[in-house]
Amino acid sequence: MKKYDVAIVGAGPGGIFTAYELSKKAPDLKVAIIEYGNRLENRKCPIDGKKIKKCINCKTCAIMNGFGGAGAFSDGKYNITNDFGGTLYEHIGKQTALDLMHYVDSINMQYGGGDTKLYSTANSRIKTECIRNGLHLLDAKVRHLGTDINYEVLGNLYDYLKDKVDIYFNTEVRSVSKSDGEYDLITDQEDFHCRYCVISAGRSGSKWMETVCRQLQIPTISNRVDIGVRVELPYEVFNDITDELYEGKIVYRTSKYQDRVRTFCMNPKGLVVNENTNGIITVNGHSFEDPNRKTENTNFALLVSKHFTEPFKDSNGYGESIAKLSNMLGGGVIVQRFGDLIRGERSTVDKIRHSFINPTLEATPGDLSLVIPKRILDDIIEMIYALDKIAPGTANDETLLYGVEVKFYNMELQLDENLETLHKNLFVIGDCSGVTHSLSHASASGVYVARYISENL
Ligand SMILES: Cc1cc2nc3c(=O)[nH]c(=O)nc-3n(C[C@H](O)[C@H](O)[C@H](O)COP(=O)(O)OP(=O)(O)OC[C@H]3O[C@@H](n4cnc5c(N)ncnc54)[C@H](O)[C@@H]3O)c2cc1C
Question: What pLDDT is recorded for position 21?
């Protein structure tokens, strides 16, 4: 067995920032990162839209696994806020969480993101406009790295880490077990022994994380999934909001069901993209900093959170079933014009082709009302009309809705204020802990645990 002081499972933002901070605060520690996926430069999704149009279920998914984790090809929006992106503050306190997110931002700036913009909702007139129209704008600062700069920052962080930490790629950790108060990690390659184990396996590692929790009897709860659509419209409709804030996180309570609907992941001049979660195709979006790669459209998600109560426990299974239904009807993601949805008509290839909006994703024109449960669809329609008041044109006939967008949440683990499980020196951070759902929170949780380890050696 290879022996390490600290073994980190997963090279996503959580794992990278744990290793980074350990290299600064405890440079004498022997640290390993064990990653299921590829090196950054080898992460290439084979779908080219021509020869390969659909997911061919590669051994590891280039989009979700590998150095940089699920965030590697993301839009690189680092939100500095406790209002969304996770509940890290519940464990470590609000100020510490914000300080750590600022710290992560400063590292990203140092490693290639220095010329990018930090947006803020503070004193925004859009906030007033929202309140006047029954909408609520969440407070946040957001650093938008963009897909291209995000990739560059990751490359620079890898160059820094590679001489300080042993990084094992294409290595899947199969199990974690206790041995004399320390930990054995059995992988599909070599095996590892460590004093401290930090698991940061992300959303793609959620099923494996469930097994680890069962084996080590770590209590968990799981009851949430977010379901909705991705909206695409001309950039001009939302430019008042996106020029000032880049991303406005806007929440609305529907009058019909009193449900909360929120905007999520806004991409001005961006692209709508497919996302593959365990072979199920859902929709997402991103955008580039590079002016040459910008489009004429803005996209964002509208999501409704479903929290289930007893006896139902499989919230992710519920979300998967809805996404599978759209895959069954459309062979992947379905696109529908808002006007067609309201009239109860299917969108067709012809209708989409003759629209003034050019879709940025090739999806199957169809009828989302056959896929999305009525309550959720009603919530989304009500929200679109509400947004139309602050961004006139949102409810236009030709606004495109892509479905289904699903945000799966990992079950939440029982962790103490140090993100430590009931097993001493076994920490679970990032999205696989259920505590974070974002780049900034996942990264901050890594820094936090690294500091805790270095202070308690
Ligand atoms: C398309 C897309 C766009 C996104 N855009 C944004 C955005 O703009 N802003 C934002 O805040 N968030 C965004 N997110 C979410 C963000 O990427 C995640 O919140 C973040 O990456 C979580 O970091 P993490 O380190 O916890 O996990 P991950 O980034 O998922 O990394 C976990 C790593 O662990 C590895 N792993 C899993 N299981 C094992 C195992 N058994 N053995 C070894 N390795 C394992 C995986 O291969 C993976 O590389 C986006 C996500 C996606 C998919």
Answer: 98
pLDDT per position as a tens digit, 378-416: 999 999 999 999 999 999 999 999 999 999 888 899 999
Cα(70) to ligand 1 centroid in Å equals 3
Task: Judge if the beta carbon of residue 68 lies within 6 A of ligand 1.
Answer: no
Index of the ligand 1 atom closest to the CA of residue 78: 11
Q: How confident is the model at residue 222 (pLDDT cuts 50, 70, 90)?
A: confident
Query: Regarding beta strands 271-277 and 280-286, do their DSSP bridges make them parallel or antiparallel, or are they unpaired?
Result: antiparallel
Yes or no: say if 241 and 391 are a contact pair by the CB < 8 Å rule: yes
Pairing of strands 173-179, 182-187: antiparallel
Pair 225, 316: CB distance under 8 Å: yes
Q: Is the CB of 366 under 6 A from ligand 1?
A: no
Nearest to residue 448, comparing CAs of 42, 10, 9, 25?
25
d(CA 15, CA 199): 8
CA of 343 to the centre of ligand 1 (A): 39
pLDDT of residue 80 exceeding 90: yes
Q: Quick check: CB of 187 below 6 Å from ligand 1?
A: no
**Alpha carbon 348 to its chain's center:** 31
If we measure between CA atoms, which residue out of 284, 335, 305, 320 comes closest to residue 77?
284
User: Which residues fall within 8 angstroms of residue 34, CB to CB, at 6 or more apart?
Assistant: 7, 8, 9, 10, 168, 171, 173, 185, 187, 192
- Give the DSSP letter of residue 70: G
Closest alpha carbon to 209 in 415, 455, 71:
415
Q: Phi and psi for 33 in degrees, rounded to 5?
A: -110, 130
pLDDT category at 446 given cuts 50, 70, 90 is very high
> What is the model's pLDDT at position 324?
95
pTM assigned to the model: 0.86
